[in-house]
Amino acid sequence: MSTYLETTREVYREAALEPQASLCCSTSKPMALPGLVVPKEMFEMNYGCGTTVHLQDLNPDTNVLYVGVGGGMEALQFAYFTRRAGSIIAVDSVPEMLEKARANFEIAAETNPWFDPCFVTLLEGDALDLPVPDASVDLAAQNCLFNIFEEEDLKRALGEMRRVLSRGGLLSISDPIAEQPIPDRLRSDERLRAECLSGAVSLDVYLELITDAGYGTVEVRGRRPYRILDQKRYGTQEDLLLETVELVAFNDPVPADGPCVFTGRMVFYTGEEALFDDGKGHVLMPDVPLAVCDKTGKWFEALGRD
Predict the structure, then answer these.
(1) Phi, psi angles (nearest 5°) of residue 3
(2) Closest alpha carbon to 292 in 139, 301, 248
(3) Residue 56 to residues 263, 264, 294: CA-CA distances in angstroms?
(4) β-strand 137-143 against 64-67: which pairing, if any?
């Protein structure tokens, strides 16, 4: 096993035995849903930089894989929508974390009449070799996938997630990103990487790695400030801003003209006709915005300049 993975497991072993308030976003609020009560034991162990739970992706028939269970908060939120035995599979490589999550699910059952711990199956394993059959889940989720793994292991982990997803299934992830280059000295610090503080890449690189892994459609759902690596504490030439990005990637074929990546582009039609049809599935009504992927947005930009 790589030494950085050993360090990561040690960091999260410590976090399982004693909550670490400074690790990732343990102070972020849980989702507010009717009848959902998140135990403080889960809230204190919310070791993620954002959320992988998006309401539009979930229904009672969804089968979910959550990698890196932590205190179990996001697995509990997924179970809120499925409410079936075994509908959530939660994988973790740290036995102490699995034990803590198991105890937390028992506590959650006491405060949530709708919840039964049998909704969540806990398995020991990691993202590089998931103990889950091919094409067996509809949604695979992980918080801070990119920031922990080095590039070759990251590619393997993205491939593993795609292997276990059904056709059209979703990969839901949240990670820190950084548009400013992070010095190699910090990137090679195994503990900082494990704490999701030094492994960030730019959004363009992030999206490219996902689409290179074979995901045909990607939607960026959110992006906001996460942390500052200040120059005094970290010995950098300037303060480095880390942002958190939340996105979903669809396990569908990559189109012949390249993947569809949605980062928030909108187009308007201001012509005199009743509508504009580009012949590629995009129909625009006058003055009404239409969300398009980046490649389509560039096509419309070029069209507007002609």
Answers:
(1) -65, -35
(2) 301
(3) 17, 17, 22
(4) parallel
Whether this prediction's pTM lies above 0.85 is answered by: yes
Q: Which residues contact 15 (CB under 8 A, 6 or more apart)?
A: 23, 45, 47, 97
pLDDT band at 271 (very low <50, low <70, confident <90, very high): confident
Closest C-alpha to 14, from 94, 122, 113: 94
What DSSP element (H or E) covers 291? strand 290-291
pLDDT tens-digit profile of 35-83? Answer: 999 998 888 887 778 899 999 999 999 999 999 988 899 999 999 999 9
CA distance 28 to 145: 18
Say how far apart CA 9 and CA 95 lie, in whole Å: 10
Q: How far apart are the first and last CA of the chain?
A: 56
What percentage of residues in the chain have a pLDDT greater than 70? 95
Q: Does the pLDDT value for residue 27 go beyond 50?
A: no
Element (H, E) at 305: helix 294-305
Encoding tokens for residue 38? 């998140």
Mean pLDDT, to the nearest integer, of 126-135?
95
DSSP string, 2-71: -HHHHHHHHHHHHHHHS--TTSTTTTSPPP--TT----HHHHTT---SS----GGG--TT--EEEES-TT
Contacts of 195 (CB under 8 A, 6+ apart): 11, 23, 24
CB 74 within 8 A of CB 43: no
Mean of the per-residue pLDDT values of the chain: 90
d(CA 164, CA 140): 8
3-state secondary structure of 141: strand
